[in-house]
Design a protein that fits this description.
Bound molecules: protoporphyrin IX containing FE
Strand content: 5-15%
Shape: globular
Number of strands: 12
Structural class: alpha+beta
CATH superfamily: Cytochrome P450
Number of helices: 18
Helix content: 40-55%
Number of domains: 1
Largest sheet: 5 strands, mixed
Distance between the termini: 62 Å
CATH class: Mainly Alpha
Length: 444
């Protein structure tokens, strides 16, 4: 096969296009084919793989040929060697240790706490008032992950954790540039912010760890503290800190963004919202949902799925080849980067007719069966598949159900809705929405 017609010159005078408008830049690149080679800063070879077969190849079939890409290497400065950023044997062992916390039976056990938090949150909204749904959802999902997995209350720390996380995510954006490796130790404003964020987050995590040490219980922190590796050694304090911080952050930010975009989309599509309310009435008759209701809240889950198609919280995944390998018949060299993008594949008309249209019906069972497994991959795939996926579906469905029973949200007129593509896909100016109360039904 001939080398792909990569747009070698495309970024020659505009290396930062991918930083400034990554979605636009990726879409432009994808016009060159399903596999495109380009260069940044003259040396860094980057492949964009834009076909479900190729996504599967990178994430699953040839996953051994890759490690996590530059963005997540940068995230190590905050997360250390936690599950999201570690590699090889350490990653495999840690994943095995933590997996029991994410089994289906375990997750069903978290449902009550999820609903309890959502029921409390829905009391905080006021009819006719503006709320930043992005912040509201982050506070809610943070409270849930802390409660269910750490048996802890972080309500008082929510604002601090939120701003530290935002600072860190913004700092990681510049860390994606190859040059930043050279300056990563200099006291640039972004490095200083990242360092401060680390100190603030560490204070919370160390407090949680100190509170749990020596106590009986079955939450994730105690599991980590009690874990013995096969060689008999315990998990070091630093390792426990890295894993706990990773779960606290990865376990709330993505779900919060998914829900934020869902409220936005529902606010734009009254017909979908009506159907959602009809299902909630039908299944719940006004009572609060529970784990046992989730299989019957099929449309609610489809709304969430379709929202993550259009606004995937993780919108790009990068890998770096650890050895010479191949993709689509092309020679990938050791050190090359490969990008796959949920944003691009989820909006590709070849797999999604009328891709811009918000239509939860696409996730009805027959339609799902007819599609390529990797036309939709909001949770990634292969050995690095999101460990929290079942948790996120349970939580997203229950939160959506509990809040939508009581409220509709409409975007504040004139509020600009723009993308802010960090590691996660956020709304650049938050999501200011007005709450409208629904008539109470039954016992809700
Ligand atoms: C809608 C919600 C969520 C989305 C869209 C999402 C997305 C993802 C994606 C795409 C990855 C793979 C990254 C890669 O391959 O480079 C990932 C990994 C991960 N996620 Fe999630 N996630 C969500 C919720 C959660 C939750 C609720 C938790 C924990 C409670 C969690 C914890 C993790 C961890 C620890 C990893 C690293 C797994 C590993 O590499 O073994 N995520 N997530």
């Amino acid at each position: 096969m001939a080398p792909p017609a990569g747009p070698r010159g495309l970024f020659a005078g505009n290396q930062l296009g991918l930083m400034r408008d990554p979605m636009g830049a990726l879409a432009k690149l994808a016009t060159h084919g399903d596999i495109v080679l380009f260069r940044m800063f003259g040396t860094q070879r980057i492949w964009l793989a834009n076909h479900p077969d190729l996504v599967q190849e990178v994430l699953v079939t040839r996953s051994k040929d890759y490690r996590k890409g530059r963005g997540l290497q940068a995230a190590k400065r905050l997360l250390g060697e936690g599950l999201l950023t570690s590699e090889g044997d350490l990653h495999r062992e840690q994943r095995k240790v933590m997996q029991p916390m994410f089994h289906h039976e375990r997750i069903a056990g978290y449902a009550d706490a999820m609903v309890r938090h959502a029921a409390r949150a829905r009391e905080r909204f006021e009819p006719g008032q503006e709320h930043d749904m992005s912040q509201e959802m982050a506070r809610l999902t943070l409270g849930i992950v802390a409660q269910t997995l750490f048996d802890a209350d972080v309500e008082g720390d929510a604002a601090d954790i939120g701003s530290a996380l935002t600072d860190a995510l913004v700092a990681f954006r510049s860390a994606r540039l190859p040059v930043s490796e050279l300056v990563s130790r200099l006291p640039t404003p972004s490095n200083v912010r990242l360092q401060r964020a680390r100190v603030r987050l560490d204070a919370v995590i160390h407090r949680l760890i100190a509170e749990r040490r020596g106590e009986e219980g079955s939450d994730l922190l105690r599991l980590l503290l009690g874990a013995q590796h096969e060689d008999g050694g315990g998990m070091s304090d630093a390792q426990v800190r890295d894993e706990a911080l990773t779960i606290l952050l990865a376990g709330h930010e993505t779900t919060a963004q998914a829900l934020t975009w869902t409220w936005y989309l529902l606010g734009q599509h009254a017909e979908v919202e009506e159907r959602l309310h009809a299902e909630l009435d039908d299944v719940l008759h006004g009572r609060l949902p529970a784990a046992g209701d989730v299989p019957r809240l099929a449309y609610t889950a489809q709304v969430l799925a379709e929202s993550m198609r259009l606004y995937p919280p993780a919108w790009i995944l990068t890998r770096q080849a650890v050895r010479d390998t191949g993709i689509a018949g092309q020679a990938v060299r050791r050190g090359d980067s490969v990008i796959v993008s949920e944003w691009l594949v989820h909006r590709d008309a070849r797999w999604w007719p009328e891709p811009e249209r918000f239509d939860p019906g696409r996730f009805a069972e027959e339609q799902e069966k007819a599609r390529h497994e990797f036309a939709y991959f909001p949770f990634g795939g292969g050995p690095r598949l999101c460990i929290g996926e079942p948790f996120a579906w349970m939580e997203g469905t229950l939160l959506l159900a509990t809040l939508a029973q009581r409220w509709r949200f409409r975007i504040v007129p004139g509020h600009p809705v723009e993308l802010l593509p960090l590691i996660t896909l956020r709304p650049r100016h938050g999501m200011r929405m007005v709450a409208h109360a629904l008539p109470r039904r039954g016992r809700a």
